[in-house]
Amino acid sequence: MRGKDIINVIRKGGNYGWPRAVGRAGVDPYIDPIIMWKEATPPGGMTFWKGDLFVSTMRSEALIRIRLEERNGSHEPTSIERWFAQDRSSGTCGRLRDAAVGPDNRLYALTTNRDGRGRVRPGDDRILRIAPQAK
After folding, report:
1. Residue 98: is it exposed, middle or buried by C-beta count within 10 angstroms (0-12/13-18/19+)?
2. Which backbone phi and psi does 57 adopt, to 5 degrees?
3. What are the backbone angles phi and psi of residue 91, rounded to the nearest 5°?
4. What is the pLDDT of residues 47-93, one digit of tens each?
């Protein structure tokens, strides 16, 4: 099965359906993910920064910013932005393996193009430092 990469909010004792349900099944007693991509968007690492969830992606070559809002004890995405790539194969930085917040409160992303699966670019692999932006 291709695609169906997801993000779940994990709850103690929660049943997310695997292997009987994949993605948004909409079937009780399974808990649906808060995000599901129809096309493959393999996530690398992820972190929260300034209230938003940032997900590094490898094959789709983007840093994805997910704005979340808490509603009735659950987190709902309000918008999804793709940084460094307009589509799933044109990323300006290539495959992004991880995202983390540094001690300087900046967001960092790590490229992974020299692992045999990415297109190697001058200066790879590298750590990208991203400055804070207003919401």
Report:
1. middle
2. -125, 145
3. -60, 135
4. 999 999 999 998 888 999 999 998 887 788 999 999 998 776 678 88
Question: For residue 43, what are the β-bridge partners?
Answer: 57
User: What is the pTM for the complete model shown?
Assistant: 0.84
Q: End-to-end alpha-carbon separation of the chain, Å? A: 36
